[in-house]
Design brief:
single chain; globular; 13 helices; 6% strand
Amino acid sequence: MTGDPTTFRERWAMSVEARALVIVTAALTVFGLATLYSASALVALQRDLPPTTFFFQQMGGVAAGIVVFALAAKFDAQRLERLAWPIMIGAIILMLLTVVPGLSTVATIGGSRRFLFGGSVQPAELAKIAVVIWTAMLVLHKGEQMRRLTKGLPPFLLIVGVLAFIAFLQPDLSMALMFVLLMGIILFAAGVRVGHFVALGILASPILWHEIQKRHYALARIWSFIGSDKAPDEVSYQQVQSLIAVGSGGLTGTGFGAGRQQYGWVPMGIDDFIASTIGEEWGFLGLALVVAAFGLYTWLGFRIARQARSPFLQLVALGLTATVAITAYVHLAVVVNLLPNTGLTLPFFSNGRSNLVLTFLVTGILVNIGSARERVYGAAATDPLVMGT
């Protein structure tokens, strides 16, 4: 039985780059779960919880992330251009909720109000995606107006500035800078004049330094990074312990589960400094492998951007790839003291379901951008066992 040759259905056919991106994502996820379990087992016991508590919470995030990834990979990413404004408005509303005084759904963690619903949702993660999609949409809509400073840039500075300002109020200086950086990357890729960025950078520098001075935690991290005696001991302590962990790992590491820093020496060892566990247990080679894996993820993302089926999708793929790459490499640089502590997590590794699910969403969108519609004819079109790639 061959079926009606005129019967067909459409499906998404993944490119080689999209398939490779799925494999890299799977490898990072598995390694991330193993690393989190090793880093969090003793932390859980210290809190009178079963040692697998954080591991199973993260597994729940992976399960949700896989569902989100599958939906995003089958959703035509070109439609995001029409949804750019609703996505941005939704992100602004969620960000505003985090700074509303007395709101019961806001969770205060580490002195900052960055999470909703008991810490399970971090609106800033969605806001990063909103900045990418919205900026890509508007820069193409404005076209030649982007060549003029007074007509091209003000809407971007206003809307992204609102998000950055709310992030300042949380406070989350790193995320505020991330919003601006992602906007700048897309604008630069779209051909905005370099002189505009130089002028804005000169104007913004005094404001940024003023905000850093107002936020003692940010200034303390800078003092700690440069080795100044002005840095509080509690700030320098975590950075020093991270370096001890990485240094004690040597070339090949102490072995899985054999690290000592997770005994509580690194206070944020399952979040902002989880890469220190990789360095200790897997050594220089383990960290190098993670660096290479994120490098491959980035290269594949840029390849997908280059081959995207529209200018809008090119910019979106570029921005989303940059989102994952910047977060990962800044985290890794902080762990070995190449950058001051920023509070950024390591995608696929750090504890936190919100970041994990959103990273799967980003990857799903990239896979769709790296796919093309094709028609399946004949019996295969109606055979439920024949799945789209």
